[in-house]
Amino acid sequence: MKRSWALALPVLFHLLCGRHRVGRRLAIWSVALSWGLGLGAWSFRACAADQPQWGQAWSRNMVSDEKGLPDSFDPKTGRNVKWVARLGTETHSTPIAAGGHLYVGTNNGQPRDPKHQGDRGVLMCFDEKTGKFLWQLVVPKREEDPYFDWPNTGISSPVTVEGDHVYLTDNRGEVMCLDARGMANGNDGPFREESAHMTPPKGSGSPPKPVAGAEIFPEPLRPPAEGNSLQTGPLDADIIWVFDLASGTNASARPMRRVLSCSIRRRDGLWPATTNTSLRIFFTAPGRRRRWAK
C-alpha cells in the first residue's frame, strides 16, 4: 500500500505555494496539512507503505491507489490532524516519510537550536507517529550572489531515503548523504567535519559588494578559524559524505543558480537535478566515484 499524502499533497502544496513566499502560518501548518489528510486515512487502513521519494519510488508516479481517504481537515478543531510541527518562516520543500521518520526542508526563521542563529538552510527530521523533533541539518548560506542561494528560502530539495541513508541537495548546491538516525548513534563517518560545515565562515552576514560587469562564481565553504567551530550535539545531522556541485564539477563556467532535487535509482546511483541544463552528474553509491558530462 502507498502513503497517499506523499503522492497527492506535495502537488497541492506546490500549487498553493507556487513561486511566492510562504508565510509563517503556512510554514507551520504545512506538515500538519500533510498529516491531517494522510494519517487520517489510518482510520480506514491499518498500515501504509513508506514513501521514501516524492512520488512513488522509484517511478515518480504521482497517482495514488489509496481508497477511502478523508477529503478535508480542520486545523482549528484538529479534525483529521494527527500532529502539528513548527517549521521555519518559509517552507518550499515536500514532506517525505520513510523508516518511521518524516523529513522536510525549511529555513531557520524559528531556530530549533539557539546555537544556530541567522539565515540558514535547514532539513528537519521528525518522528513519524508523534511529530517529535529528532534532529536537523543546518547549512550556512552562500553569499557570493543572492541568486546562488536566495535569502530565507531554506532547503528546497525533497529528500530521497534508501535504508538508513538520506540523500538531498542543500541550499549551497552540495549533494549530501546523511545518516537517518542523526547523531543518536554517534558520528559514523567517513565525513567527520560536521562542526566546521555547519559553522558560518568569518564575515558571514556581510556579503561582498557587487562590481559592475564582474563575473561571480560559486565558492566552496571556507573553514572557520581554529577554535571557532560550533560543537555538534544530539540534535544535529550526521553527514556521511558531501560533494559540492558548484566547485567539484568545474561548473564555474556555468554557475548553477539553484539545485532543485535529488533522486536515486537502485543499483544505478544518484542523479541530482540542477538548473544548469548543460550539466549532468551521476554519483555511484556510496558517493565516492563520480562522473559528469557537460
Write the layout of secondary structure elements.
Layout: H1 4-17, H2 24-38, E1 96-98, E2 101-107, E3 120-127, E4 133-140, E5 160-162, E6 165-169, E7 174-179, H3 194-197, E8 239-244, H4 245-248, E9 259-265, E10 269-274, E11 280-284, E12 289-293
Antiparallel strand pairs: 1-2, 2-3, 3-4, 5-6, 6-7, 7-8, 9-10, 11-12
Helix pairs in contact: 1-2
Short description:
The chain is of the alpha+beta class and 294 residues long. It is 13% helix and 23% strand.
What separation lies between the terminal Cα atoms?
Answer: 40 Å
Mean pLDDT: 76
CATH topology: Lipocalin
Could you name the CATH class? Mainly Beta
CATH architectural group: Beta Barrel
Counted up, domains total: 1
Using DSSP, what is the number of strands? 12
Please work out how many helical segments DSSP would assign: 4
What shape does the CA trace take? globular
Task: List the keywords.
single chain; 294 residues; alpha+beta; Lipocalin; 4-stranded antiparallel sheet; 23% strand; disordered N terminus
